[in-house]
Design goal:
The chain is α/β, with parallel strands linked by helices and 299 residues long. It folds into 2 domains: 144 residues, NAD(P)-binding Rossmann-like Domain (Rossmann fold, 3-Layer(aba) Sandwich); 136 residues, Dihydrodipicolinate Reductase, domain 2 (2-Layer Sandwich). 44% of the residues lie in helices and 24% in strands. The strands form 2 sheets. The protein has a 7-stranded mixed beta sheet with strand order 12-11-7-10-9-8-13. It is globular. The N and C termini lie far apart (40 Å).
Length: 299
């Protein structure tokens, strides 16, 4: 049984992280910390666990941490937890800057802890199977990803998220897009980016084997224009990433299973570990520079 400390008190923390941890046969939700002590107390009471008012006290009380906080807050907590020898189950993006992502990787590697970054789609069996098969087949020349979300409608649970409003789709849904493109086309070597209306970010990526990908992302699409689609183009035609039911509890349960397997085996090579999270942040940071300076940027 692995004891987890949960950092975060919002909807995603309560309804995905906490619920999945409480239901898992080999995980124990052992405590909660949040930036709002009242909300931390309410969430902890809901699951019958202690609320902590000190980050390090909760880290000291557990074997692993799960984080559902803004990425800049997550990075600092992840460094403290990894340095203390606690395993990491983190959210995307890993951090909001490459130096912060590097600090997390260095701490995890330095202490030898297991890590998984929860890119939701990557933990759906149909998506994982497709990506494995596509990567093995090879021959891909291009990918096109369109992710048009609409979170700024009245009542949307993430519409008031300060970091999403500041950083936009590039940093919120961009990690999801990259998480399915990189396993098939390989590392990104060069990035161009430009803006469009309604918060659109358009990225053109060159990958290390010469393939390209085009990503179009927004959080502010008109509701009738929302879509999520990924298509790969290769020697044998086009193939679309399978559409899957969102089912975040199932996906998070799979992420828990895989972190536990890493811990059991003493392995530190999960396909979505903090090193992969850092790779994604490097592309996003390059895209941010490319967009601001209207030039292509090497990664």
């Amino acid at each position: 049984m692995l004891r987890f400390g949960l950092f975060g008190t919002g909807h995603w923390a309560a309804e995905t992280h906490a619920a999945a941890l409480a239901a898992h046969p080999r995980a124990e939700l052992a405590g909660v910390w949040g930036r709002d002590p009242e909300r931390a107390g309410a969430l902890a009471a809901r699951y019958g666990v202690p609320a902590h008012d000190d980050v390090d006290a909760l880290i000291d009380a557990v074997d692993a941490i799960a984080v559902a906080l803004p990425p800049d807050v997550q990075a600092d907590i992840a460094v403290r937890a990894a340095t203390a020898g606690r395993h990491l189950l983190l959210e995307k993006p890993l951090a909001l800057s490459l130096p912060d992502a590097d600090r997390v990787v260095a701490a995890a590697e330095g202490s030898g802890v297991a890590s998984v970054v929860f890119f939701t789609q990557r933990f759906h069996p149909a998506v994982a199977g497709f990506l494995t098969s596509a990567a093995a087949a090879g021959g891909w020349r291009h990918a096109r990803v369109t992710m048009f979300a609409s979170i700024f409608q009245p009542g949307h649970r993430y519409g008031e998220s300060a970091w999403r409003r500041e950083r936009g789709a590039l940093w919120d849904v961009g990690p999801h897009a990259l998480s399915v493109v990189l396993p098939v086309l390989g590392r990104v070597t060069r990035v161009s980016a430009t803006d469009g209306p309604r918060g659109l970010a358009h990225l053109l990526l060159t990958h290390d084997a010469g393939a390209t990908s085009a990503l179009s992302l927004t959080l502010d699409a008109p509701p009738a224009m929302t879509i999520q689609e990924t298509v790969f183009f290769g020697d044998d035609g086009a193939q679309a990433l399978p559409r899957v039911e969102r089912a975040p509890l199932v996906a998070f349960g799979a992420a828990l299973d895989q972190l536990l397997a890493e811990v059991d085996a003493g392995a530190r090579d999960h396909r979505c570990d903090v090193r992969f999270g850092r790779e994604v942040v490097a592309v996003l940071a390059a895209a941010e520079t490319a967009r601001a300076q209207a030039r292509a940027v090497d990664v």
